[in-house]
Each structure stands twice: as structure tokens, then as C-alpha cells.
Amino acid sequence: MGGELSSRSPLARGDWHYVEKTSLDALTPAEWAVLERQRNAYLRDHQAEQALRLLTASAGDPSFGYTVNMYRHALQSATMALRDGLDEETVVVTLLHDIGFLACPCGHGEMAAALLGPYVSERNRWMLARHAIFQDHHVAGHPGAGRRERWRGHPHFAWTAEWVARYDQNAQDASYDCAPLEVFEPMVRRIFAREPRPIVPD
Ligand SMILES: [Fe+2]
Ligand SMILES: [Fe+2]
Question: Which ligand is in closest contact with the Cα of 168?
Fold first, then answer.
């Protein structure tokens, strides 16, 4: 019995139940309902912490050339947004805009959009998904500098261009006085505590 139990992951709460099945094919509707209820409760309590854990995973990483690493870039971006008086949602979006960069550099905007999209406005979700393409506009001679033009005239083009110009392309300053992460943590928790909205794929 001890061997069997020691191989199990512990449940998050003492009043939760294991479902003694090893495949989805074997689940009864009642067992699926138990798993759904427990999973949703777990996510409500832990999603923000998981996102913050992902953000801080790179806090001690080296820079690959800028004077700051990606974590400091995120803190500077968010601090600038905060000091400009942007709304809490946008400050959180700014803090987490590059959260998947080191693991998923080519799709990191889409990754942030997928993470935050259900909890934020459509304009911020749209901006997250495309911010890397808009950033190319700021690099002289960049081969992708004109790629954002495909979206000129879109309702969220101006906001995305403004956000990248004000809070992203210029947030690489080792001398910038960043606010500590603790300032942002309650904001992150409040955004993930929102009721998620369904996302229609682009
Ligand atoms: Fe980015
Ligand atoms: Fe960035």
C-alpha cells in the first residue's frame, strides 16, 4: 500500500478525491465532473502563481547582449506603464508580454496572448500577439520592418504601435529604477481572478 500511495501525486486539498482511472476513455460522467470541479478550483487558486513562477524563472539568467536580461526588461516595461498611469490590466499585460520568450522566441507574442487573452481586452490580446512584428519597425534596416503594414487601418494598429514605442522597444536600460515585482504581484492575481472570456481564433 505504501508503494502504491508514494507513487501518487498528493491532492491539493484534503477533501478532494482521486479518480481511480488511468485513461479518459474509462471515465464516467460523474468522475469527469469531479475532475473538472477540482481542476477549475485549483486553477482559480494557482494560475496567477504559475504565471509569476514562469516570469521569475529567468530572473537570474544572463543577458544575451542587451544591458538587461529578459526579466529586467519585463520589470522596466511594466514600471514605465505603471508610472504613466496606465490601467492595471495593461500594466499586467506589459509585465507578462515576453513571458515565454526564452522557451518560445518565435511565437512568444502568441504565447502571451494565449495566456492572458481570456482575461484582458481584445485590443490588449491583439497587441500581445503581434507586438514582436511591430517591434521590428524600430530597428533600422530590419528585414521585417514593414511587416506591420499588413494591419494598418485595423482598430488595434495604433494602440499596438504606441505600446511598442513607449513600453517595449525602449525598455533595455540597466540604470532604470524598476519597481520590485512585489508591486505587480497583486495586480497579476486580480487579472487572473477575472472570469475568462472565450477567445475566437484569429
Ligand atoms: Fe516580445
Ligand atoms: Fe519586450
Answer: 2
Banded pLDDT at 5 (limits 50, 70, 90): low
- Amino acid occupying residue 105: P
CA distances, 79 to each of 7, 34, 45, 90 (Å): 44, 41, 26, 11
Provide DSSP, 106-125: GGHHHHHHHHHGGGS-HHHH
Residue 200 CA to ligand 2 centre (angstroms)? 25
Q: For 37-52, how does the pLDDT look when each residue is reduced to its tens digit (9 = 90+)?
A: 999 999 998 999 999 9
| Residue 134 neighbours by CB distance under 10 Å | 23
CA 73–ligand 1 middle distance (angstroms): 10
Q: Which amino acid is it at 134?
A: F
Tell me, in angstroms, the distance from the centre of ligand 1 to residue 27's CA. 41
Residue 96 CA, ligand 1 centroid: distance in Å: 10
Say if residue 4's pLDDT is above 70. Answer: no
Closest Cα partner for 193 from 49, 44, 39, 40? 44
Structural domains of the chain in order of their starting residue, each with its CATH number = 63-192 (1.10.3210.10)
CA of 98 to the centre of ligand 2 (A): 5
